Amino acid sequence: MIFTTLLFMLLLTSSGMCAQTKSVHDIDLWPKGLPNTNGIDSAPFDDSKRNFKPSIRVFLPVNPDGRAVIACPGGGYSGLAMDHEGYDWAEFFNKQGIALIVLKYRMPHNNKDVPMSDVAEAFRVTRDMARQWGIKKDRIGIMGSSAGGHLASTYATHSKRKVAPAFQILFYPVISMDESKSHKGSCQNFLSKNPSPEEIALYSNANAVTKHTCPAIMLLSDDDTVVPPSNSYDYSHALVRAGVHATVVNFPTGGHGWGYRASFAYHQAVLDALSAWLDKFSR
């Protein structure tokens, strides 16, 4: 692993995070070489070309309470909204004693194993560094937005129990890989333009829920025309049927992709609802 400590006082002063954040680190997930490829993931990496170098940015709180969240930004499995669905959440989580680890994952380009291996490695690194970072290994949750919500829920439902997340936070998530029920671009980019019925079923994550799946909160807008709200409801119903806690917070307006943006009309309501849920279900 390659660690880079950022000059976080310069990076974070304008957002008022200094009082809550102790340190920030960038970590290369695969310093010895990538375990698989999407066909374009080679040096020189270039975010502007969506050739992302798989890495994590770790925001450690001043007063850690042992919890951590690994965040998967969205972008339709073709790009990454690293700020409002990733880095901008650091102050919120750090204020509550929760470490935020934002994952920059590679795009699948029809190879689903690529982003899946990156999120699994982010969890492995976090568990390995848990003591040093003030994290409890059994208190690491996952967060995802839009297509990142599909990646997060896929990891939550498909990973082995001993490495599965403790809780999941999903913003307007893609859950189904059925194009008629979900976001077409995410479906095609994750699987292919002509996936088998078996692949569609396997990675439509409401089908993969078991009694061992971790608790979840889903936050979305009722007027979302990009990812139908039925994705969240199908997932929540599957969780409840399995005896797993699920909370759905559905705002009347706002569309898709608002993340941490303060311009979202229900921004404070998002923070309040998420804080209350975390207090009850992530400890």
Distance between the termini: 29 Å
Average pLDDT works out at: 94
Radius of gyration, in Å, reads: 17 Å
Shape: globular
Helix content: 25-40%
Give the strand content.
15-25%
- Tally the helices: 9
| Oligomer kind | single chain
Number of β-strand runs: 9
- Low-pLDDT windows of residues: 7-15
Write the topology of this structure:
Elements lengths: L1 E4 L2 H5 L8 E8 L26 E7 L4 E7 L17 H6 L3 E6 L8 H16 L1 H4 L1 E11 L1 H12 L9 E4 L12 H7 L6 H6 L13 E6 L8 H12 L4 E6 L15 H15 L2
Parallel strand pairs: 4-5, 4-6, 6-7, 7-8, 8-9
Antiparallel strand pairs: 1-2, 2-3, 3-5
Q: Can you put this structure into words, describing what you see?
A:
The chain is of the alpha/beta class. The chain has nine helices and nine strands. The chain has a nine-stranded mixed β-sheet with strand order 1-2-3-5-4-6-7-8-9, sandwiched between helices. Strand 8 (216-221), helix 8 (230-241) and strand 9 (246-251) form a beta-alpha-beta unit. Helix 3 (113-128) packs across helix 5. It is globular, with a radius of gyration of 17 Å. Mean pLDDT is 94; it is low at 7-15.
Brief write-up:
The chain is an alpha/beta fold and 283 residues long. 29% of the residues lie in helices and 21% in strands. The protein has a nine-stranded mixed beta sheet with strand order 1-2-3-5-4-6-7-8-9, with helices on both faces.
Notable features of this structure?
alpha/beta, 283 residues, nine-stranded mixed β-sheet, 9 helices, 9 strands, single chain
